[in-house]
Design a protein that fits this description.
heterodimer; A: mainly alpha; MetI-like fold; globular; B: mainly alpha; about 0% strand
Chain lengths: ~325, ~270
């Protein structure tokens, strides 16, 4: 078998195993309470009837591992369970919100990735100049700030003072694509600032690293232009770590949306999960938690596989 | 090596915050939950930073919040280092199946996004200070474990550790007298980074309403409480949010310098 196929197959198998263990951990996370989950959800003043009803809903009379297998097999068949708070099937609650969250993360990614890579290449090309230092200071501060700080600064300046964009990102079914895009301007900007900072710094580091190799010096001695050396000689060999960091940051976006959705009152899955935690709606927390975690695991797996595929040394091995 | 001005700024920032955390509640003009005025009063002599959404003095709440937010984050970081370093050194020094089991378990825990796992756990556990410290410390200790194991791995293959083993020293001696002193510099910088993580993580949880509970003052919670002010054109939530950001930037400035210093020291040696 070609070593590439073998490596990728190994990673995929590892990813499947990780997904299974992650699902068990998410399930176990709601089981770590020493007492009774039903009592914890309702609090001390609950009537025995209410406690009994929730116990039955959650099937607490059966052993945990049987409930886990039940839950997992339901999940795989598309049955996400029922919300404790309003008795609505969780699949219905999530469908539209998942789409909203993916839209937000997708737009942020489509904007952030090209900007970050361009900035990274520019900073590496002009390294140690004022331009490089300016980019470095801005990105370091963006990394040090909590997302909600960046979010509220943007709201204050661009929505409240300048009236350029809405402060609350309300989207609804039937909205046109352009309107939707306009509505999410600020949340996309907030998310982008954070991931651009990370991606740009890693892109710069990867290129600077390759630029130190002897073959770059050869290219310089041949009299090639700096731009040609950076783009044609350094970039292909830096591509593998860059792709890796891009996809890992996309995985980070999946989690970053939780706080950003709350800042901008955006009807996405992060908001739903936070509300469910506050209401102790355990089935909804489990379902949203596993979707977030699975997306994260799958994106990290994609990062692994793409990094293998982009590495010329492995691709051309015989 | 002379420290750069940015490092002095970093140290100055940390000093101010430590002072606020230690003596804040003592010098605070009002109590943390005391209602002393109208809602969102502007800056004045009586209320230097105005009042909040319930008419409580902002400056007092910031000072009370300093000791709570920084204290909880610091406690979580200390606990996370205790867990992470103990297990990391154990894995490196003992090796074999102990190392394999610990490393696989930590890898799996790290495959889940920290915030998502914390939310799942907080759906059933009450958000008390002790629970928050435990949750943040356990999730954060995975990173400490990785680093502690990696640096200890480099040291355990050295001759002086082998000599200690041959002398028949016990595990405790090898860990604390041979490995620990030789692995401290990179871990000190990591302590700063992990503190920033715990601090931002706690603030985010409180901002989501799932961290430190009202009426206790906490910076993330203060941003949440006053978020609506911003639509009236009042930048009030930016005050506690900036308090959070400035401390993180200060610690990062010092950590950058410490990392640079330890790498030049190694090269010079």
């Amino acid at each position: 078998m070609h070593p590439l196929v073998k490596l990728v197959a190994q990673r995929l198998a590892l990813g499947a195993g990780t997904l299974l263990v992650v699902s068990a951990l998410i399930f176990a996370g709601t089981e770590i309470l020493p007492g009774d989950v039903a009592q914890a959800i309702l609090g001390q003043s609950a009537t025995p009837e209410a406690v009994a009803a929730i116990r039955e809903d959650l099937g607490l009379d059966r052993p945990a591992w049987i409930r886990y297998l039940d839950w997992l097999s339901g999940f795989l068949r598309g049955d996400l369970g029922t919300s404790l708070a309003n008795r609505v099937p969780i699949g219905e609650m999530i469908a539209g919100r998942l789409e909203n969250t993916l839209f937000l993360a997708g737009v942020a990614a489509a904007f952030a990735v090209p900007v970050a890579i361009t900035l990274g290449i520019v900073a590496a090309r002009y390294r140690e100049t004022w331009l490089d230092k300016a980019i470095s200071i801005v990105t370091l501060s963006a990394i040090s700030m909590p997302e909600f700080f960046i979010g509220y600064i943007l709201i204050f300046v661009f929505a409240v003072k300048l009236f350029w964009v809405p402060s609350i990102a309300s989207v609804f079914p039937g909205m046109s694509f352009a309107d939707r895009l306009y509505a999410v301007t600020l949340p996309v900007a907030t998310l982008s600032l954070v991931v651009i900072a990370h991606m740009m710094r890693m892109t710069r580091a990867a290129i600077v690293n390759v630029m130190a190799s002897p073959y770059i010096e050869t290219a310089e001695l041949k009299g090639l232009t700096r731009a040609r050396i950076t783009l044609r000689h350094a970039l292909p060999n830096a591509l593998s770590p860059i792709i890796n960091v891009v996809v890992i940051n996309l995985a980070y976006l999946v989690v970053g949306v939780v706080v950003v959705e709350v800042v901008f009152v955006y009807p996405g899955m992060g908001q739903l999960m936070v509300d469910a935690v506050a209401k102790r709606d355990v089935p909804v927390v489990q379902a949203t938690g596993i979707i977030f975690a699975a997306t994260y695991v799958l994106l990290n797996l994609t990062a692994d596989v793409l990094a293998i595929l982009a590495n010329p040394r492995i691709r051309h091995a015989r | 090596m002379r420290p750069r001005p940015s490092v002095l700024v970093g140290f100055a920032i940390i000093a101010v915050y430590v002072a606020a955390a230690v003596i804040g509640p003592l010098v605070s003009p009002y109590g943390e939950a005391e209602v002393v005025g109208d809602v969102w009063e502007p800056f004045s002599a009586a209320h230097p930073l105005g009042t909040d959404n319930l008419g409580r003095d902002m400056l007092s709440r910031l000072l009370w919040g300093a000791s709570r937010t920084i204290g909880v984050a610091l406690a979580a970081t200390l606990l996370s280092f205790t867990i992470g370093m103990t297990l990391g050194y154990l894995a490196a020094v003992v090796g074999g199946w102990v190392d394999m089991v610990l490393s696989r378990a930590i890898d799996t825990l790290m495959a889940i996004p920290t915030l998502i796992f914390a939310l799942v756990v907080l759906a059933v556990l009450p958000p008390s200070v002790v629970i928050l410290i435990l949750v943040i410390a356990v999730l954060d200790s995975t990173r400490v474990f990785r680093l502690a194991r990696a640096v200890a791995m480099d040291v355990v293959v050295m001759d002086f550790v082998e000599v200690a083993r041959l002398r028949g020293e016990r595990l405790g001696w090898i860990v604390f007298r041979e490995v620990l002193p030789n692995t401290l510099p990179p871990l000190i910088a990591e302590f700063g980074l992990r503190f920033c993580f715990a601090f931002l993580f706690l603030s985010s949880l409180s901002f989501l309403g799932l961290g430190i509970q009202p009426p206790a003052a906490d910076w993330g919670g203060m941003v949440r409480d006053n978020a609506n002010a911003i639509s009236f054109g009042l930048p009030i939530p930016l005050i506690p949010a900036a308090a959070i950001a400035v401390l993180t930037i200060g610690v990062n400035l010092v950590v950058d310098w410490q990392l640079e210093r330890s790498s030049t020291a190694r090269r010079g040696a």
